[in-house]
Amino acid sequence: MMAVAISAGAAAVQMGRRKGRNAVVWGTLAFLFFPILFVLLFVPGKRKADIAPAISACSACGGAVSVQATTCPHCGQPQSQIAVRPWYSIPVEVAGTVIAFVAAAWSVWWFSQTGALRGLPRCDSTLAKYEANRALTNAPAGKVIGISIESFDAIRTDYTDNKDVRCSAEVTLNNATKHKVLFSFSARENGTYWIETRIVDW
Predict the structure, then answer these.
(1) Residue 101: C-alpha distances to residues 31, 92, 104, 155, 181 (Å)
(2) Which DSSP symbol is given to 116?
(3) What is the side-by-side strand order in the sheet with 149-160?
(4) What pairing do the DSSP bridges indicate for beta strands 193-199 and 178-187?
(5) In whole numbers, what is the pLDDT of the chain averaged over residues?
(6) Cβ distance 166 to 160 under 8 Å?
(7) 101 and 155 assigned to the same domain
(8) Cβ atoms of 113 and 121 closer than 8 Å
(9) pLDDT of amino acid 77
(10) Is residue 164 within 8 Å of residue 184, measured between CB atoms?
(11) Is there a single domain that holds both residue 14 and residue 97?
(12) Does the predicted TM-score (pTM) go above 0.70?
C-alpha cells in the first residue's frame, strides 16, 4: 500500500500544479488517503486571465523576446521567465491515477469477498470457493488422485469470528461424484490466513 500512497501523492502534486491548486496540500492528502486523488480529478482548475504568448516585448526597449529568455537579446535587460511543466509531470499524473484506480477497485472487490478490508473470506464468496478448491487440489491426496471441485452447493457458515471462519458445503468433484466438504480459514499473525479443505464422506 505504500507504493500506492506514493504514486497517488505524486500524481496529486502534478495534478494540483496543473490546475493551479495547492500541490503540497493535495499531495499530502492523497498520500495519506489515496481516494482523495479522485476528488481532485473533478476539482476545476483556476482560470487564467490569458495565455502567455511565446514571444513578449522587452520591458526596457520593447524588442521581441522569447518568454524563456533570461535577458533581452537587444539591450540585455533581465526578463522574467514563464514556468514550464517538467516532461515527467503528465506520465506521473497518469500512472499515479491508474495505480490509485486499480487499488480502489481491488479494495472494493476484497471488501465484497470478505466484508472487511483485512478480513477472512466469507463462506459463500468467490474467493472462498477458489481458495477451498486450491487447498484440496494442492493437498498430497489431491495431487495423487487428481481431484478438484467443479461446483459448490448448499454452502453454510458453521462458525465465524475475527480469527476463524469454518464452512461446509455439498460439492461436485471433477470425477462427477458428489461429496460433503469442510473448509476453513484461520488468520495468521503476518496478515495472511491458513486454508484447510477436507472431504468428510469419503
Answers:
(1) 14, 14, 5, 33, 37
(2) S
(3) 149-160, 164-173, 178-187, 193-199
(4) antiparallel
(5) 81
(6) yes
(7) no
(8) yes
(9) 83
(10) yes
(11) yes
(12) no
Residue 71: Cβ within 10 Å count: 12
Reference 172, options 193, 148, 144; nearest CA is 148
Same domain, 181 and 106: no
Residue 166, number of CB atoms within 10 A of its CB: 17
Q: Which residues, at least 6 apart from 116, have a Cβ–Cβ distance to it below 8 Å?
A: none
Write phi, then psi, for 198 (nearest 5 degrees): -140, 130
pLDDT digits (tens, 9 = 90+) for 18-62: 777 888 888 888 888 888 888 887 887 766 544 445 677 887 888
Tens of pLDDT along 56-81?
Answer: 788 788 888 887 777 888 888 887 65
Q: Which three cell numbers stand for residue 200?
A: 468428510
Q: Which of 149, 186, 151 is nearest to 167 (CA)?
A: 186
Which residues make beta-bridge pairs with 111? none
Q: Which of 164, 161, 132 is nearest to 147 (CA)?
A: 132
Orientation angle between helical segments 2-18 and 23-32, nearest 10 degrees: 160
Closest CA to 26 of 86, 96, 87: 96
CA distance linking residue 17 with residue 11, whole number of Å: 10
7, 78: one domain: yes
Q: Which range of residues forms the domain containing residue 71?
A: 2-45+56-114
Within-domain flag for 130: yes
